[in-house]
């Protein structure tokens, strides 16, 4: 079992110091595509967290039996299986969400975060901690998506989670609804986050 | 790690079979629900065209009303639906199709029994910009298509001019123009091929 400190470290890395979107800059295609509504981002984040966590768990469990040269095939097989499960689940129980996310659920398979964690973490760590690492990274991804979609939905539709926030007569910013706006917002958030982390690192050095 | 040739092959086969079994059984247990959802989506849309959606939009209720009052009807080669009132057909939903700004737009247009009025519209497939052209699927736009008299005195059935019968969506001119053009073309074709007056 992983110690408390290890768990804390894994979550801290996934959400903050090594955030997949902001610091590693992986998996940003979907971060740009599904962020015009907060609900879409939330479901997408949960789906990705589920897939990453269970893929890491499975890869880590099987790692001592898996021949090295076919490990990528195995990983892709595992990832796609979980993605198909998510896709079927959404179609069966949340058909509206499935329609809203469209092809992006299937495209989770190609999300670099999942294979990155499988290769970079799960292959050299125990199953439980790999599972938690998957959740941590997934949460990190979800938070960034929610932050982008908060800005986009608020200005693009005047709503948050479909609840009207802006006063009546508010002219919605068409630009926010279209994909290019996500580039600008993501860049601003990345800029801010990197500045924070650099500042923190400096402080750490000075204290020593 | 084992160096034999057979081991990786066997391993891959076992893993593949395991995962396929899991997926197949998951699919097997949800397939009925998925099919129902898809059919319900279409039923919901057809009832919307006829403006007889039950309150609460309960899937079971929608299915009941649909089975009771709506029948499939071919107009020449155009598939469509007819709404029954007792034994009489009181209105029709005809399929239309054409190209929008980004992709095909497919939907159903409701007409009254003597084809003089448009009674409703619903889109089945459209891939217009979400939040802009995509808003053709939202109520305020679709509700404009209730009770429009069909006359061709201006050369077209539907027009989006200031004195026209359908308002365009601000910021989505291409989509709005496309929808009106698709409907006009489809209506002309429909009246020609189906030979109804």
Automatic annotation (TrEMBL), chain A:
Gene Ontology CC: one annotated term: plasma membrane
Source superkingdom: Bacteria
Subcellular location: Endomembrane system
InterPro entries: NqrDE/RnfAE
Keyword Secreted (UniProt): no
Keyword vocabulary terms for this entry: Membrane, Translocase, Transmembrane, Transmembrane helix, Transport, Ubiquinone
Residue intervals passing through the bilayer: 42-62, 74-94, 100-118, 130-150, 170-193
Membrane topology per record: Multi-pass membrane protein
Main localization (coarse): membrane
Record flagged with keyword Iron: no
Protein name: NADH:ubiquinone reductase (Na(+)-transporting) subunit D
Organism for this UniProt entry: Alkalibaculum sporogenes
UniProtKB/TrEMBL annotation, chain B:
Protein name: FMN-binding protein
PANTHER family: NA(+)-TRANSLOCATING NADH-QUINONE REDUCTASE SUBUNIT C (PTHR37838:SF1)
Record-annotated FMN-binding domain positions: 100-190
Keyword Coiled coil: no
Gene Ontology cellular-component annotations: membrane
Sample GO molecular function, one term: oxidoreductase activity, acting on NAD(P)H, quinone or similar compound as acceptor
Residues annotated as transmembrane: 9-29
Source organism superkingdom: Bacteria
Entry's Gene Ontology BP terms: sodium ion transport
Database matches in Pfam families: FMN_bind
Keywords: Cell inner membrane, Cell membrane, Flavoprotein, FMN, Ion transport, Membrane, NAD, Phosphoprotein, Sodium, Sodium transport, Translocase, Transmembrane, Transmembrane helix, Transport, Ubiquinone
């Amino acid at each position: 079992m992983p110690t408390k400190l290890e768990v804390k470290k894994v979550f801290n890395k996934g959400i903050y110091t090594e955030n997949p979107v902001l610091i590693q800059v992986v998996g940003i295609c979907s971060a740009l595509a599904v962020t015009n509504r907060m609900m879409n981002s939330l479901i997408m984040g949960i789906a990705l967290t589920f897939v990453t966590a269970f893929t890491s768990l499975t890869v880590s469990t099987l790692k001592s039996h898996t021949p090295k040269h076919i490990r990528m095939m195995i990983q892709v097989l595992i990832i796609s299986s979980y993605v198909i499960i998510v896709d079927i689940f959404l179609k069966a129980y949340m058909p509206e969400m499935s329609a809203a996310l469209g092809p992006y659920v299937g495209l989770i398979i190609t999300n670099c975060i999942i294979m990155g964690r499988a290769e970079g973490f799960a292959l050299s760590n125990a199953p439980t901690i790999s599972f938690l690492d998957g959740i941590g990274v997934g949460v990190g991804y979800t938070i960034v998506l929610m932050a982008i979609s908060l800005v986009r939905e608020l200005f693009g539709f005047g709503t948050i989670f479909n609840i009207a926030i802006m006063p009546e007569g508010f002219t919605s910013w068409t630009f926010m609804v279209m994909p290019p706006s996500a580039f600008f917002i993501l860049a601003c958030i990345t800029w801010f986050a990197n500045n924070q982390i650099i500042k923190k690192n400096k402080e750490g050095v000075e204290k020593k | 790690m084992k160096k034999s040739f057979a081991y990786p092959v066997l391993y891959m086969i076992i893993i593949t079979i395991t995962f396929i079994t899991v997926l197949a059984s998951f699919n097997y247990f949800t397939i009925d629900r998925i099919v129902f959802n898809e059919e319900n989506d279409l039923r919901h849309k057809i009832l919307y065209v006829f403006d007889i959606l039950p309150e609460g939009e309960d899937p079971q209720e929608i299915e009941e009303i649909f089975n009771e009052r709506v029948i499939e009807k071919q107009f020449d080669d155009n598939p469509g639906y007819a709404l029954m009132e007792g034994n009489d057909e009181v209105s029709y939903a005809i399929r239309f199709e054409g190209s929008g700004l980004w992709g095909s737009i497919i939907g159903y247009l409701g007409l009254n029994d003597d084809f003089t009025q448009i009674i409703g519209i619903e889109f089945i497939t459209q891939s217009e910009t979400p939040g802009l052209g995509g808003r053709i699927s939202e109520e305020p736009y679709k509700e404009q298509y209730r009770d429009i008299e069909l006359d061709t005195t201006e050369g077209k059935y539907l027009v989006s001019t200031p004195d026209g019968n359908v308002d365009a969506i601000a910021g989505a001119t291409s989509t709005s123009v496309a929808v009106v053009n698709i409907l006009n073309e489809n209506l002309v074709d429909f009246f020609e091929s189906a030979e109804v007056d």
